Amino acid sequence: MNPCIVQSYINEKHFATCRGDGLLAATPTGSTGYNLSAMGPMVSPGLRAINFTPISMNVPLSFRPLVLPSHDVTIRLEILDARRGLKEECHDETLTNGHEVGIAAFDSVRSIPLVRNDVVTVRESPVSIVTFMRESALSDWIDHINKRANFNPPNI
Asked: What domains are there in the chain, each with its CATH number?
């Protein structure tokens, strides 16, 4: 797949024009696997946050992963192009108009094709789900990361 070009806005303020394989918006629960593989941070599942991570950007240091407060943030992504460049640079409209230039994937279970000028909005749902966590949830999470990622091998 060709790199995609996406305009990103945080609370309607232009943040970055991203050219790469994609952008990842994840909750802390979904962050460990997907976000870590995209070089994003691991975030404690007890936090109300949205991880916003670029995937294989063409200019890697132009956009670093962010952790944003989910209760106070709306991320808007405008799909520009995936073949030649920004809107102004694409001279052959038949390459992208009405043709799939990317996908929006939801936990790799469901995906929706995206065409040029589509907009994807990411925000916290106004409806919350009641969950129960053990008091030791943070400690359990840290122990799990240490075991799985082998951060603290015993014989150093």
From this structure: 4-127 (2.60.200.30)
